[in-house]
Design goal:
heterodimer, A: mainly alpha, ABC transporter involved in vitamin B12 uptake, BtuC, B: 306 residues, mainly alpha, two-stranded antiparallel sheet, 13 helices, 2 strands
Chain lengths: 359, 306
Amino acid sequence: MRSTDSGGGAASGEAVLLPVLSLAGAVLIFGVFVAIGGRDPLEAWRLLLVGAFGDAFSIQNSLQRAAPLMLTALCVALPARAGLTIIGGEGALVVGALACAGLPYVVTLPANWFGSALLLAAASLAGGLWVALAGALREFRGVNETISSLLLAYVATNGFKHLVEGPLRDPGSLNKPSTFPLDPGLQIGAIGSLDVHWGLFWGCLACLIAGLWLALTTHGFATRIVGGNRRAAGLVGLPISQLVVTACGLGGACAGLAGGLEIAAVHTAANASVIAGLGYTGILVSFVARHEPLAIIPVAILMGGFGAAGSLLQRRLGLPDASVQVLLGFAFVLILGMESVRGRLRWNASQPAGLRGAS
Amino acid sequence: MTWETFSALALAVLGGAIRVGTPFLFVSLGECLTEKSGRINLGLEGVLVLSAMTAFGASYWSGSAWLGVIAGSGSGALLALLHGLTCSMRRVNDIAMGIAVMLLGIGLAFYLGKSLIQPQAPIISSIPLGTWSDSPQVRAALNLNALFPIGVVLAISMDWALAKTRWGLILRMVGDSADAARTLGTSIERVRTIATTAGGAIAGLGGASLSLYYPGSWNEGLSSGQGLIAVALVIFARWKPTACLWAALLFGGAGALGPALQSVGITGYYYLFNTVPYVLTLIILVMTCSPQRLIRGSPSELGMPK
């Protein structure tokens, strides 16, 4: 049987404690895992910490990695608040990246901030449409959105590879097929003297706007109602399908923006490096943050930290780069399992049993 | 296109349907079993990858391909057991947990399988059915994966067991009406967990066929959504095991279309042909699902697709 929890920030300490506990548990299990593999778990834990936040370089590295995660997490969080489980953020990112890299082929853009803005807008639009499609399939044809969004992600990835290695290919890119690099005037640079690009700003801004939208606007409230109790929303007369597809579109736009930023700020051309699993890590970020946009910011930074630490673990301990994936996988399983503990921690015992909420 | 090319193409697609369809078959049978009990396991993608790696590793280290198959099945069962146990806890969302198990399974497989990417391991023997022909292409196309007949037998016997045995009845009851099951005192969670684990064991056979037959090696690009397509396959097959067999062959053929066209000389558009199984799945889902009612034949406790 399914139970859907559309998240939402409970003001109790539980809302913070449970994710922290599950992350701690995941780190612990990871240490055991590393120990079984014959390496020192304490060293692994130390490297995790150092690699994530040890010095200025790693902090900037973590922030850099967190930027796209914030946006792809929104791609999961916004539809989740409307009641849908969309996991195809990777597809929206890829489509957005394609749009960003491909627009200069079709339209000559002014090589300044306005051109960059157009690129990012195109990327967001493409990503938004991609996920809105999954939402529409769910609303109008009853197709399970988890499966359809993932299938669309695979279609997008293959379509991307086809276009990048075929019609859009830059003949100068020999070993690694890629599109023509963006004009330097269109690229997005770093924030001041830091090693972090402006994508971090856009990621934080998007999370802030999303959080405010959900909490303070009528439209956001209506979306939350649809996510919380669909029947009640219908009884009250809310336009359910519109709200759901809009939420999907907005989430997809964020992931598309992430793809556009990957091109404009990081890779400067579309190639296979863009497909790096950022969409899938975003799923975890969103679940740990319980689909709360404001909570996504710190969780994304933490996950970015894990990612940054992963390369350190690889270099110093010789662990495969998939070790971070294992850590995140355990974290994901634990965070979901912790849901069953919610409301049953002993410090809630002061409430009479009848008021403790439906189990 | 000449008749020769066409027949070569058709044969390549047919051979490919069986070759590529075998993992689909096993995963969809495993998912069918799980969903019949009222639980959905999206983690079978992770099971597929993890069991492929385990099977390859076991075969490599023990020297016996069949030991690899058993190991693959076992690891699939373990991962699915994790899914089953965690979903038994209250308020855990099946679908989200399935995604988590999928990511965990893939991560574990990549992590543990790093040392297995280069070496060769003994692979499953094939049953040559094409010896009557002179053409090497026909022979190659009709080399049958030894696991495929096992899958066919499994599909047929699962159909029979679900309909005619006591265990099948209990399973279906738990999947169709939890209330009726409770009235009879059956432990719903235990039945579902057992079904999930058994489903994972069957899906593990699919993983073994991926790494021990075709393509016959372990690498990180082995599966790309096949587990997920298999979940959609079960819906398409209306939760009937023998229908899963035909659906698996159909999707296997769709997946083999690209390589088949390449074998007759039509190259290019490689990635576009890769999208055919996914697009086909989407089209079929759009055609068979309806927003108003549950699909006829779906276990009522599944709650989806709606």
